[in-house]
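Duplicate of #3305? Posting structure anyway:
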């Protein structure tokens, strides 16, 4: 009997300790980073809605403008960024170069379109002989364009005149101001350009710009695979790498915010547009309706990523850092 009481006393003491123990302390700050593109819309919603208030006292979103700025951010040993949205091939390249990071999810499965002043251009071949504004030299979307063109027997240097610009938003502005007639754009730049030139909806009389070749459909046609490209997702680095529980909380919040954006395009448009003057709420909302966004964990996306990386490696190994990333690149994967 005395032993039983002693046991009950121990259990009671443990229960009282558990009850009185302080909750796990929140981090002072959590930093999320990404471009002003579809992959970042959930990040902005997470900050605005307080989705991670149980994780950190302050959650901050920082934008990056171009791949060079992104690489500096990722390579900075003193960086305090925890999660970064980036093109999947950039993540693979950095990982293979020794940067400590893991891909945690893919949510952008193709937001690339040709936009033109001509109504009858529907495939990449239709753009032969034309000058095309191309954002991000040697990065997405340039990489996807060149892979698709070459797989159709087109010579990128001979058949097109590519005019490189800093970002999709820069290309969008040049189209709107009539400094160019054709461009490869990513959402939301496509929808914003159509709105600003009153070319949306498509039924409007004599629209100034047209949505032309859908690069996702081109991808499916030439690769004989689903019409989607594992284009961009979220990467964990720095402190987040040492805390799998934090990554899981982030994943859950990101998936929920992505679902909210897809269900509420108008409200999402207002949230995003107030952070950048070049975007409009209506244009961002239009982009959400066509953005083909789906939350897929890195582990689940691995087969499609490896196919994509394999194509890039066969064309130019340096695009993915000289080799396909190993299993440790994928959060939760073996």
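Output from current build:
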């Amino acid at each position: 009997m005395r032993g039983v009481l002693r046991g009950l006393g121990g259990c009671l003491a443990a229960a009282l300790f558990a009850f009185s123990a302080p909750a796990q302390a929140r981090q002072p700050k959590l930093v999320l980073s990404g471009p002003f593109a579809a992959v970042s819309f959930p990040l902005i919603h997470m900050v605005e809605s307080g989705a991670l208030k149980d994780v950190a006292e302050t959650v901050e979103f920082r934008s990056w403008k171009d791949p060079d700025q992104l690489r500096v951010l990722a390579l900075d040993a003193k960086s305090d960024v925890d999660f970064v949205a980036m093109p999947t091939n950039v993540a693979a390249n950095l990982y293979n170069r020794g940067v400590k990071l893991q891909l945690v999810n893919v949510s952008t499965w193709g937001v690339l379109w040709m936009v033109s002043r001509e109504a009858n251009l529907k495939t990449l071949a239709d753009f032969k002989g034309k000058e095309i504004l191309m954002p991000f030299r040697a990065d997405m979307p340039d990489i996807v364009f060149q892979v698709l063109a070459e797989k159709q027997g087109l010579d990128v240097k001979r058949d097109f005149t590519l005019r490189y610009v800093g970002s999709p938003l820069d290309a969008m502005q040049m189209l709107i101001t009539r400094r160019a007639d054709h461009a490869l754009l990513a959402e939301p730049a496509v929808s914003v350009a159509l709105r600003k030139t009153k070319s949306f909806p498509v039924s409007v009389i004599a629209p100034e710009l047209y949505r032309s070749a859908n690069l996702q459909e081109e991808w499916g046609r030439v690769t004989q695979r689903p019409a989607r490209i594992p284009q961009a997702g979220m990467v964990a680095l720095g402190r987040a790498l040492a805390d799998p529980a934090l990554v899981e909380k982030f994943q859950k919040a990101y998936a929920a915010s992505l679902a909210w954006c897809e269900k509420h395009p108008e409200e999402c448009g207002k949230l995003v547009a107030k952070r950048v003057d070049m975007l409009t709420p209506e244009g961002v909302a239009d982009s959400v309706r066509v953005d083909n966004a789906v939350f897929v964990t890195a582990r689940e996306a691995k087969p499609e990523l490896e196919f994509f990386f394999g194509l890039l490696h066969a064309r130019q190994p340096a695009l993915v850092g000289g080799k396909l990333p190993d299993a440790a690149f994928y959060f939760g994967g073996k």
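Confirmed duplicate; merging threads. The domain at 112-223 is CATH 3.40.190.10 (D-Maltodextrin-Binding Protein; domain 2). Residues 1-23 have pLDDT under 50 and may be disordered.
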